[in-house]
Queue: 2 jobs
Job 1
Amino acid sequence: MKMFSYRARTTDGAKLCGTIAAESAPVAVRTLAAEGKTVLHIREQRTFSLALPLWLRGRIAAEERIAFLHELAALLGAGLPIHEALAHLRAGTDESSAYGQLIVVIHAEVLRGLPLSQAMEMHAEAFPPSLVGMVRAGEESGRLDVILHEAAAVLTEAHVLRESLRGALAYPLFLLAATIFSLLLVTTFILPVFAALLRDLGTELPVPTQLLLTLSDGAAAHPYLLPVTAAGIFLAAVLALRVPSLRLLADGCFLRLPVLGTFLRFAAWQMILRTLAILLHSGIRLDRGVDLVRSVTGNRALAHRLARMEQSLVEGRTFAQVIAHEPYLPALLRGMLAAGEAAGDLERLLQHAADYCRRRADVYAARIEALAEPTAIVLVAFVIFFVVLSVLLPIFDTMDALV
């Protein structure tokens, strides 16, 4: 997207100036004309800020994303059409900020006739696929304001958990960084002295000390080997996760982890079941609803299971039969939803099941937060113990050799 500055005249003859984001000048003129503005002069802005990477310019904070969903849901709930709601949001933001530019671009794309979900999908750096999937489901169900409120609630819970984990891990990570710095100093200046002394006395170096000295010698001989290796491993992991089969396998492994996997399952099923309940309430068929909620979750393994569920529903099986052997859905929920379908009250039971998943996800989120700090401290303690052992053992061996 390019930024254009313009001078225009409104329908009542008033002149105004402003900026607009568009792919080209003609597109910008058509967008302004749709807003009732006659363009007198338009010029592309060329400043140093435009040379910044797109991912950096387009990044918005989690709080801004949540506020966007809440405000847009409130405006839509008040009866405003989507383009007018976005215009109100645009008027209340600073268009020079990354968030303001994003609102301007989305508003322009909606005025061009794109649905909101497609406009958001074009900005993957700001809106994850799961959020885009929820918006798409809301558009098809006609209850976009409800879906946006639900999406904002889910993002808020994830943001609170992420901030809690950051706060809990701040001290252990600082301690780990200090320990690694001390390890570098010890292996560079202290251990070589003891190693030379022990070699002169004919004493064999302890195994931990040999390991640290080997790492130190390797880092000294090849100073760029460690960062290059770390970068290579990171790049290989990123590229591997782009392969669909490997991403499917990795997502399935995440869901099977002891505590984190259980939390991910409950959090994902909360979004899936609640969105499915809203779709059914809006009159969408069950098989079509299952197809729409596939994009609600960002987990490929769950999306694959939902695709198989949709196929089974199309083939004529009941919902109870489809979920009877679903490995990622808790047995309690399978029985609850089967009873809801038999009683003809599946929509209400889906809401109850989503509430249950939310409560269980909150419990496991608290467990993760409680376990994160002691786990990090144990890891730091192990590193410190290894360093101390590597330093003390040569000292004791030196004292024994001198005696």
Job 2
Amino acid sequence: MSVKLPTEDQLSDVAKRLGFSLSPEDVKSFQGLMQGYVDAYNAVDLMIDPLPEVTYPRTPGTRPAVEDNPLNAWYVKSTVTGAAEGKLKGKTVVLKDNVMLAGVPMMNGSSTLEGYMPNVDATIVTRMLDAGATIVGKAHCECFCMSCGSHTSALGPVCNPHDPTRSAGGSSSGSAALVAKGEVDMAIGGDQGGSIRMPSAFCGTVGMKPTHGLVPYTGIVPIEITVDHAGPITATVADNALLLEVLAGSDGYDSRQIDISVSDYTAGLGKPVTGMKVALLKEGFGHPHSETASDDKVREAAKRLEALGVTVEEVSIPLHLMGPAIWTPIGLQGLTQTMMLGDGYGTSRPDLYVTSFMDFHRGWRQRADELSETLKLGMLFAQYADDQHGKRYYGKAFNIVKTLRAAYDAVLADYDAILMPTVPMVATPLPGKDAPREEIIQRGFEILNNTAPFDITHHPALSVPCGKVDGLPVGMMLVGKMWDEQTLYTLGHAFETSGDWTGW
């Protein structure tokens, strides 16, 4: 690859798109002044790209046969055996398919990426392998992770392990489904609007969205730097704490990691909860599309915590109801500028840029019609908003985030956690093959009311299964103070070990 001096026609086209009025003489003048820039770009092109070394051998990814993939939760299976000893020795882990595993295909749910082969391992991949884990492949996720349902992947919907006609939740759909089915011990999920916690609620797994920046995002496809989170999805709270213990900490690359604070998360397991205080959030219940039975199951879970000695009191945070609205300009304009127009990374931060991904991903522009309806909707409105208003609503939303964060912090000053339903309903029916766009969009975004606010405020949030309604799991969400995942694990573990949630 090399950079060439633009032709006069190319430069005229660029000038028009930038709003410049240049005469032919101006174009020729500017063209003549650009040779130094061309030389600099080509000098950079010849330099070595200092990417992290890939240290563990692996098998090439192979797509399992249909009969071996009944939930359509696997993208590819591969085997990467980690160190001989470590905290995760004996544990199998599947990666959400937006996590880079060198030499193994990654499509991030989109046909426009099919055929891409990463040349680096994500930081968290190396950490898990160093801790003795065996990585066993990649799990399907939604098209560029832009859906709360499990129906937008280019390779078809992921089915719920409790009822294959129902959604597994999204966008970490395959990760939660494979853990719930017992095919893997642990999984990695990503969470920008609730995508670890929502599939955990639908599938009956434990999902932690850590404090923003606690887990390095290096080598994971970004959506929007200020809402990107990665974290563990597991069958038990104990395994979740164990995996987070391995994942957490600065890696020297990820600019999301500012003044992070790491703990021994497993030390929170088994602690007494008597005397702890939990705030039951009034506005977390009774949304217009909430299911009463699902809400009631979470209230029953709160009573179980009370029986364990926890003080539970209802509180009101009216601004919580505006959380999804505040998220919208940040999420839509951020993802469009960074993930799509910015070739996956955008600019202006000192991260590790995986240029092989950037080169491959640019091809979406010639195949945009293949993107999911959920992603198209977000991009269309984001570009319209940008054309009409620039970035003012993006900026104003960030200003308001500070007020929202302060409202949660004011409650957390007096309580150990805030409790609410993870999602407002149990797993929804999967849209049919010929479903109208309106149904696809509805199923894609209808469950993020309680989860999305904490992606923009950055508080840690843990979803724990707390019972079933008509055979489908219900999730209880516990939200904690910044960097205080350990307290959430203490509460979650006490709740989990107090009985068998599958019979509640």
